[in-house]
Amino acid sequence: QGFYNFVYQPIIEQDEEISGIIAVATEVTEQVLSRRKIEESEYRYHNLIHTSASLILILKGEDLIISVVNDSMLQSMAKGKDVIGKPMLTVLPEIIEQGLGDVLHQVYKTGESSYGYEAPVHIMRNGKMELSYYTYVYAAQRDLNGKIDGVSVIATEVTPQAEYNQKIKESEAQFRQMANLMPEKISNANAAGDVIYFNQTWGDYTGLSFEELKNGGWQKTIHPDEIKEVTKSWLHSVETGNDFEVELRIANKLGEYKWHLTRAAAVKDNNGKIKMWIGATTDIHDQKTKEEAKDEFIGIASHELKTPLTIAKAYIDLLRMSLQKTSNEDFMYAQKAAESIERLNGLIGELLDVSKIQNGKLGLNITEFDFNEMISTAIEGIQYASPNHTIHRSGKIKQLAKGDKERLQQVVVNLLSNAVKYSPNAKVVDIHVAEKNGEVIVAVKDKGIGISKENVGKIFERYYREEERATHFQGLGIGLYISYEIIQRHNGKLWAESKLLKGSTFYFSVPINYTAKKL
């Protein structure tokens, strides 16, 4: 199929009569097809502009006359189609003071495009000046000869996104300002665990700049004896999302190592994905030094007391034997003295255990034993010493267990004695033993005074005692600490559930077959 232009002319004879017609045809197929392509291109061009969600303007000439504007742009400008044919800076004179007129003229003169990201623009809409944010590009328009004849404006309104980002920036600025005022050393890490922010306190303490700290300088401040374990623990937290907590020594700007407690928690999105980590490092050097001095004193004092106490116990036992066949009253006094020495001996034993724990010498004597029998022995001892309470037992283990029998019995005795001690008005204590997924689970339940919610997580700390308990009940506050360490060394868990004035339940779980952890 082709396209032609036809010219028809009559053939006129000498007598001026028409004798025929001359037809001249010129093929114009190529021109027609080219024109159609141009028309189609212009249609698509105009259709693209007017149906686009983007805000589009075409400005012509040095006066920036609006020649094309789509509905999205008109709506954003709060104008009608009558703006077509008018200068842009006359239609929106408010943008002149905001410098946008100069930018448009600069693009027209130089041909260099201009870009804006979340740029604030004040526009007069319905008699009221309103602030909106735009991401835009101003680009030069050229004719067929390459000469600049106008400027195109393509923009997207991003007001909600920009306002949200602005709030984030303000929040971050407030956080950093607050963090710089805090005495603790505050840091931020990204989801991968790379530390990206240190507050001013870090710099003041270490003498390092922010960039030095950020580029790995903080790792060089950690004591060489702790850096390996700290790094391992941190990588584990990053991998699992678990909270990070470690005590370590950090060098100050004088090169002196001071003890610190570092905690970090993950900030997660609604899907549980880690967004960042927030960490706080607190100077605990004085507290740590005092604890070490206390532990050293307790260790020495306990060892020194052990010998005379053993001798006193031996003499009391001889005295009981000699009085057993004489005065009942004198024998009773000797018996009470022996019981007091036993209690003192138990306290000294606990203090020695604390000393062993602190020095890493609390070893385990692993054997295979009857767990049920061990529980029975523990119950029997507590029941004998506390005849006013009844200990109810339930559950059994069907196989032999492997672990340190004496140490695990020490844990059970501690939990039962605490249950009795803190249940002065409730005469029943329950102990349940179960086997599940290769673990032994023991639960000791009382209906005593209970523990406040905010203190449940602290009761396994060394020397910790609730104020209410310390006032009315005797003890050093180390029994649960020792029990916790024993269970930890068995690769198990020890935890508590409690309600104030409603009672407590202490649980521990250990593998039925103890296996030493690989270092």
Structure, explained:
The chain is α+β, with helices and mostly antiparallel strands and 519 residues long. The protein contains 15 helices and 19 strands. It has helices at residues 29-51, 71-77, 88-91, 94-97, 100-110, 159-181, 200-206, 210-220, 224-240, 285-323, 328-358, 371-385, 405-421, 467-472, 479-489; strands spanning 4-12, 18-27, 55-60, 65-69, 114-125, 128-142, 148-157, 185-190, 195-198, 244-251, 257-268, 274-283, 367-369, 390-394, 401-403, 428-436, 439-445, 493-499, 503-511. The strands form 5 sheets. Strands 4-3-7-6-5 form a 5-stranded antiparallel β-sheet, sandwiched between helices. Strands 9-8-12-11-10 form a 5-stranded antiparallel β-sheet. The protein has a 5-stranded mixed β-sheet with strand order 14-16-17-19-18. Helix 12 (371-385) runs parallel beside helix 13. The mean pLDDT is 85.
| Percentage of β-strand residues | 25-35%
Give the overall average pLDDT.
85
The end-to-end distance, rounded to whole angstroms, is 87 Å
Number of strands: 19
Q: Biggest sheet, strands in spatial order?
A: 4-3-7-6-5
Structural class comes to: alpha+beta
Q: Segments where pLDDT lies below 50 for 5+ residues?
A: none
Number of helices: 15
What does the radius of gyration come to? Answer: 43 Å
What gross morphology would you assign? elongated
Helix coverage percent: 40-55%
Question: Mind describing the biggest β-sheet?
Answer: 5 strands, antiparallel
